[in-house]
Structure formats: structure tokens, C-alpha cells
Design a protein that fits this description.
The chain is of the alpha+beta class. About 30% of the residues lie in helices and about 15% in strands.
Length: about 130
């Protein structure tokens, strides 16, 4: 139980960093060696909490309506925004949930199309 906050923080951080690195690769940008460490994740948004599930089964009771209507329950469908990942985790983000973020201080170099076709790491199974 005492490791759960650390586990959540690592999960969100690793997922965000890997997502940025993959997006750079897909857009033809080769990240600098220090890009992963220098990256800063800010403006984290998480989905609203799910409403509690209603219990099924049991005996159904007849509703007595005295002419008084109950106000409808309004669900907040806006994503909640936080300045840092820690704040989002403290407010209930769990691994497996969606989140959005802004990555800053990410440095890389645009590569030409012919360089993009070459793999960045050599494949030991390819025969020349």
C-alpha cells in the first residue's frame, strides 16, 4: 500500500515520456540523447471520476411521489486540469486511465526522408 503512489507516479511518467518519444519518431524527429531526461511534463488533465454504480437486485420498493420532484443529478463531464502529474495522481488518477499532458523542453532534430527509412538501432538479425 505504501508503494502505490510511487507506482502511479512512475507509470504516468513513463507512459508520458514514451508517448512523446514515439510521436517524435513518427513525425521524423530524432530526439537528442538527453531529450528523455530533460523533458518536462506539465498541464496534466484527467477524466472526471466515474459515478458510483447502482446495486442490482434486491426487492424493489414502490416510489411514493408526494408531488415533490427530486432535482436531477448533474454529472461533471469536464476533464480536471492540474499543473503537475503529482497533483493529478493525488486527485485520483489510476494506471489504465486516460490522461493528457503538455511536454516541454523536448529537443530533437528533423531528419530527411532517406534517413528516416534507416533504423536508428542496428538490427542484429538483418543480413547484409
Amino acid at each position: 500500500p505504501h508503494l502505490m503512489p510511487t507506482y502511479r507516479a512512475f507509470t504516468m511518467d513513463e507512459c508520458a515520456r514514451e508517448t512523446v518519444m514515439e510521436a517524435m519518431q513518427q513525425n521524423g524527429i530524432r530526439p537528442f540523447e538527453s531529450a528523455r531526461q530533460d523533458m518536462l511534463i506539465v498541464d496534466v488533465s484527467i477524466p472526471p471520476p466515474r459515478p458510483p454504480r447502482k446495486k442490482k437486485g434486491g426487492r424493489k420498493k414502490k416510489k411514493k411521489n408526494d408531488g415533490v420532484e427530486e432535482p436531477p443529478v448533474v454529472e461533471d463531464k469536464q476533464w480536471r486540469k492540474f499543473a503537475t502529474m503529482k497533483e493529478a495522481i493525488d486527485k485520483g488518477w489510476q494506471p489504465g486511465q486516460s490522461f493528457s499532458f503538455v511536454a516541454t523542453k523536448v529537443n530533437g532534430q528533423k531528419v530527411r526522408d532517406d534517413e528516416l527509412a534507416k533504423p536508428t538501432t542496428p538490427n542484429p538479425f538483418m543480413v547484409n
